[in-house]
């Protein structure tokens, strides 16, 4: 179980077939870090990235042709 259980939000860009899913815990982002995990393995590890790194990743994903 993750220390952020109940706080996870799945990306709106995640596939409905269960693939390529990322989740993040926005309510924790105010602490200066953004927890990120693979929704296919919710009991697996999560990454804690800086808010700046998360914002950069989101902007890159928005601009990329996926």
| Head-to-tail CA distance between termini | 31 Å
Rounded mean pLDDT is: 81
Number of strands: 4
Number of H/I helices:
1
Radius of gyration: 12 Å
Note the main attributes of this structure:
alpha+beta; 4 strands; 20% helix; 1 helix
Characterise the protein shown here:
The chain has 66 residues and is of the alpha+beta class. It has one domain. Helix content is 20%, strand content 23%. It has one helix and four strands; from the N terminus they run E-E-E-E-H. The chain has one helix at residues 51-63, and strands at residues 9-10, 22-24, 33-38, 47-50. Strands 1-2-3-4 form a four-stranded antiparallel sheet. The chain is globular and about 30 Å long. It starts with 8 loop residues before the first strand and ends with a helix. The relative contact order is 0.20. The mean pLDDT is 81.
Topology record:
Blueprint: E1 9-10, E2 22-24, E3 33-38, E4 47-50, H1 51-63
Antiparallel strand pairs: 1-2, 2-3, 3-4
Task: State the gist of this model.
With 66 residues, the chain is of the alpha+beta class. The chain is built from 1 helix and 4 strands, in the order E-E-E-E-H. Strands 1-2-3-4 form a 4-stranded antiparallel beta sheet.
